[in-house]
Task: inverse folding
């Protein structure tokens, strides 16, 4: 049960926040991570068009050997992505908690510009506290 | 005349006379069409003599829509504001102010001036409520320095933030300097200052508030806010009160 990384992707598919919380994840340059996040945004958009039931709501999780990813999109179009080990319990609650921290520390911060990279020490420290309690 | 009459509900027979007297009391026919239409609610209760008065008569009060200004002043229950609402409002205030200032000092001054206004009002309100709750024959207002500071430390902070300040101490540097500490200030708990604005403390609003209260009690002082983080409390803030020489002189006389 490890959280490898947390990403925040904005409405346009740009990566506004990414942090790695384990050393097992292969190191990548920031540019490579940006491209990956953009691609994931695209896949999410494609899968949401394929959804036969409601016509909205795309990719929610993906799995590989011993690892997986969970995607959660807020009503405003912000996507939270968590890369984690398998099997991981309580991911839904974790996503909710991350979103709570996001809405507190990012959205209520007057020095944060919407859709721009998140530069808040409060967000980082609270997120770190949350992830450490899980890892 | 016909136009102004169309705003009414079908009138009950006895009110028809007042309906036709309406244009004659105000002015001749053409202006009666341009005058503001009487409200529907009014015709439901009773018809006042002139159309103009209709506009100024308050809508018959329904108990559930009592506005904030109509609420009794000594009623405290249910008057709390949610922290999120405050956080969003304060964030907007800061970004609004930020676009109109050149420096961090100016921004703090703007926030402090807003707090000052709030402080003056809070002082009046608290004193009034204290008078109402205790015996109204013996209203009391502190005039010595230490009780005034304790009044701010407990009563004002408790009213504004829901809890007293975490500390009140005299500075080691000067007799005229006092410090109010708050370990995790609720007003600015979601704000993280970017690195390039290092010295800014949004608690300047609280500093202004304290200054407003002190000024209202005739204790002029220069009040500033500083963030003094500790490991346990990364957002700990200190409100530094530097009292005017006049206050120190007065205290000396009163102490005799």
Result:
């Amino acid at each position: 049960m490890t959280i490898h990384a947390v990403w925040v992707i904005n409405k346009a598919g740009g990566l506004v926040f990414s942090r790695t919380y384990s050393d097992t994840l292969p190191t990548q340059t920031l540019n490579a991570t940006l491209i990956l996040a953009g691609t994931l945004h695209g896949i999410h958009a494609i899968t949401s068009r394929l959804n036969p039931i409601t016509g909205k709501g795309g990719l929610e999780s993906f799995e590989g050997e011993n690892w997986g990813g969970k995607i959660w999109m807020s009503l405003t179009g912000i996507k939270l992505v968590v890369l984690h080990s398998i099997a991981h319990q309580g991911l839904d609650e974790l996503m909710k908690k991350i979103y709570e921290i996001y809405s507190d520390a990012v959205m209520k911060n007057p020095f944060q510009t919407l859709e721009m990279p998140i530069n808040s020490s409060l967000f980082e420290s609270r997120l770190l506290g949350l992830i450490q309690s899980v890892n | 005349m016909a136009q102004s009459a169309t705003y009414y509900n079908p009138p009950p027979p006895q009110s028809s006379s007042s309906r036709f007297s309406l244009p004659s009391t105000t002015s001749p026919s053409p202006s009666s069409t341009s005058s503001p239409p009487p409200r529907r609610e009014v015709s439901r209760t009773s018809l006042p003599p002139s159309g103009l008065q209709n506009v100024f008569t308050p809508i018959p009060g329904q108990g559930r829509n009592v506005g904030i200004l109509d609420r009794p002043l000594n009623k405290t229950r249910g008057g709390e504001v949610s922290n999120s609402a405050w956080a969003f409002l304060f964030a907007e205030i800061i970004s609004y102010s930020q676009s109109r200032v050149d420096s961090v000092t100016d921004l703090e001054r703007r926030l402090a001036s807003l707090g000052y206004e709030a402080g003056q009002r809070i002082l009046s309100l608290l004193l009034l409520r204290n008078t109402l709750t205790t015996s109204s024959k013996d209203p009391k207002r502190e005039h010595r320095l230490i009780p005034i500071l304790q009044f701010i430390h407990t009563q004002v902070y408790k009213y504004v933030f829901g809890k007293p300040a975490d500390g009140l101490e005299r500075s080691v540097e000067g007799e005229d300097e006092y410090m109010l500490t708050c370990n995790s200030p609720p007003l600015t708990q979601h704000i993280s200052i970017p690195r390039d604005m290092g010295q800014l403390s949004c608690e300047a609003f609280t500093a202004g508030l304290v200054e407003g209260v002190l000024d209202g009690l005739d204790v002029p002082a220069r009040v500033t806010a500083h963030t003094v983080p500790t490991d346990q409390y990364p957002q700990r803030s200190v409100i530094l009160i530097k009292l005017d020489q006049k206050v120190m002189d007065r205290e000396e006389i009163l102490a005799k």
Q: What stands out?
A: Residues 3-134 of chain A form a domain with the Beta-Lactamase fold (CATH 3.30.450.70). The beta strands of chain A are 3-9, 15-20, 61-63, 67-73, 79-85.
